[in-house]
């Protein structure tokens, strides 16, 4: 056993190095996490947070460094070793079997048997239910994963780790996909875990979450340790400044919009989902050039189907969608783009990017047929390189020499910057932004917000759809609340507040 100090520590990562080819993603990084505490890892997109945690969980091999768990030196080559040493991890993309029940998923790979070697479902169910109750997870163990919300699935992942007797729980951006209420519930669960002596390591970009629930915070910048601090001793502003390396002003100064003509109009739109259920129900809205029109709402109130109808990924059953007077409902995605609509989609991996194409190729996706990048069917390499260079520089896509890098190797924030660079460079009349800052660090988030405002001031119409109410309030000029597929009310943003909108979002005020 190690020194008493070491025994107080659940995790000690010492001198960790990680290279991806010549690129040094982690350079001599140290991490000390005390037992029974909640410890945040803070850093910009691409700083190396996920890489560090993947190393701890045995999913990635460090090029140098040591890991001590409870003072004991371990060689964690595989997640199996991590699990054996009571380390659990909740990934951002869940790894559950959709057609299995909660109990089946949790037991998978750790089946309990009775003395005759036969699966003991009863016993396993009991253990799972006890855990669910102890940590206030409120899970119906007989329910199938495919019928559960994202927030519930995340609880199943937590329960799965606890069933494997995890003492250390790592969560990689667990709140990026949750509604505000789900975030509150998760924070409560994590607090309870820490109170029971478990150690929680959480990667998050949300400073208020760090301030509210975490004890300590380790800040990483571009693969290097910057500081490890007691959260109480620092303000949000100070944490951000350490993260980015300069004094960053968190507030954006929004100037007043100068709206002009209506460019985009939806009238009495109804859209059904695949099972024939009305998801958008007789919805109407108008957006002017020079304004940001925000739609606030709880997840699954028709936002997804509305966007799919606008982009012609889904047929509408009645109503019209017009851009500059031209009807575009039930046409093709190509026609929608050609008519002047650009989209920052919700799912950047599936809809926004070709992950196995390079940065340049992704920047070029919509433009490769256009003069001067292409002439008489031939691509002009020099022009294409210049085009990519200028967007990478203008939109600060990192690392700066990423032109030939496959997009799947970029960090989340940089992938999002790439999409925005491409869509904005289309010079659209309407920019549709769906959850544009999900998973982004505060610097990148601020960047995206400023970019939306800039597009507005260039006279574009901007439709912002987000589950993050703060984002809508900060950025939008008009705020519409969507509930059950319909817009229940539209406000000038200056004339309302979080409370009023929150009530309408939850179906109140009717
Ligand atoms: N498999 C890989 N191959 C090459 N480079 C990689 C690979 N995985 C990560 N990187 C690079 O290592 C750096 C750190 O990535 P990592 O995913 O750890 O960042 P992060 O801090 O988690 O960022 P985010 O907040 O965007 O999730 C990034 O520059 C990324 O492009
Ligand atoms: Mg990450």
Structure description:
With 510 residues, the protein is of the alpha/beta class. It folds into three domains: 4-244, Rossmann fold (3-Layer(aba) Sandwich), CATH 3.40.50; 251-340 and 428-510, P-loop containing nucleotide triphosphate hydrolases (Rossmann fold), CATH 3.40.50.300; 348-427, no CATH class. Helix content is 33%, strand content 26%. The strands form five sheets. A six-stranded mixed sheet has the order 6-7-8-3-9-10, with helices on both faces. Strands 16-19-20-13-21-22 form a six-stranded mixed sheet. The protein binds adenosine-5'-triphosphate and magnesium ion.
Précis, in short:
With 510 residues, the protein is an alpha/beta fold. The chain has helices spanning 4-8, 49-56, 79-84, 102-107, 121-134, 150-163, 180-195, 207-213, 236-244, 303-310, 333-338, 348-352, 359-364, 381-394, 412-424, 442-457, 469-475, 498-505, and strands spanning 9-20, 23-34, 38-42, 64-69, 72-74, 87-90, 168-172, 199-203, 216-221, 224-230, 262-272, 278-288, 291-296, 318-323, 326-327, 341-344, 374-375, 378-379, 430-434, 461-466, 478-483, 486-492.
């Amino acid at each position: 056993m190690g020194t008493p100090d070491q025994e107080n520590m659940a995790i000690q990562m010492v001198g960790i190095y990680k290279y991806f080819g010549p690129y040094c993603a982690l350079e001599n990084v140290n991490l000390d996490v005390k037992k029974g505490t909640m410890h945040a890892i803070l850093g910009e997109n691409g700083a190396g947070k996920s890489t560090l945690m993947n190393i701890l969980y045995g999913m990635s091999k460090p090029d140098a460094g040591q890991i001590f768990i409870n003072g004991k030196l371990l060689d964690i080559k595989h997640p199996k070793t991590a699990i054996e040493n009571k380390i659990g991890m909740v990934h951002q993309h869940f790894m559950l079997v959709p057609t299995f029940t909660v109990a089946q998923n949790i037991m998978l790979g750790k089946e309990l048997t009775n003395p005759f070697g036969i699966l003991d479902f009863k016993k396993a169910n009991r253990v799972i239910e006890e855990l669910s109750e102890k940590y206030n997870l409120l899970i119906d163990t007989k329910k199938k994963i495919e019928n559960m919300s994202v927030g519930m699935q995340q609880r199943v992942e937590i329960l799965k780790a606890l069933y494997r007797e995890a003492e250390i729980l790592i969560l990689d951006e667990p709140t990026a996909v949750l509604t505000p209420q789900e975030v509150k519930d998760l924070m409560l669960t994590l607090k309870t875990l820490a109170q029971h002596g478990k150690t929680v390591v959480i990667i998050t970009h949300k400073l208020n979450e760090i301030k509210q629930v975490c004890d300590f915070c380790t800040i990483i910048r571009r693969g290097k340790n910057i500081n490890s601090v007691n959260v109480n001793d620092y303000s949000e502003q100070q944490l951000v400044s350490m993260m980015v390396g300069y004094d960053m002003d968190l507030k954006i100064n929004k100037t007043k919009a100068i709206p002009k003509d209506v460019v985009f109009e939806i009238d009495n739109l109804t859209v059904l989902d695949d099972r024939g259920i009305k998801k958008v129900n007789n919805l109407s809205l108008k957006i002017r050039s020079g304004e940001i029109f925000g739609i606030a709402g709880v997840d699954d109130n028709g936002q997804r189907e509305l966007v799919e109808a606008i982009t012609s990924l889904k047929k509408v059953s009645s109503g019209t969608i017009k851009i500059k007077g031209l009807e575009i409902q039930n046409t093709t995605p190509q026609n929608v783009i050609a008519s002047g609509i650009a989209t920052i989609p919700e799912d950047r991996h599936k809809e926004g990017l070709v992950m196995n194409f390079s940065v340049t190729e992704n920047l070029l996706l919509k433009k490769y047929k256009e003069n001067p990048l292409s002439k008489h069917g031939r691509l002009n390499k020099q022009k294409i390189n210049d085009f990519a260079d200028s967007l990478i520089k203008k939109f600060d896509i990192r690392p700066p020499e990423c032109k030939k890098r496959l997009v799947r190797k970029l960090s989340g924030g940089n992938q999002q910057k790439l999409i925005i660079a491409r869509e904005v460079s289309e010079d659209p009349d309407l920019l549709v932004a769906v959850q544009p800052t999900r998973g982004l660090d505060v610097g990148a988030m601020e960047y995206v917000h400023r970019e939306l405002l800039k597009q507005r001031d260039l006279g574009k119409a901007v439709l912002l759809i987000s589950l993050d109410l703060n984002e809508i309030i900060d950025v939008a000029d008009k705020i519409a609340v969507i509930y059950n597929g319909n817009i229940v009310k539209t406000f000038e943003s200056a004339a309302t507040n979080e409370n009023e909108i929150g009530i309408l979002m939850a179906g109140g005020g009717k």
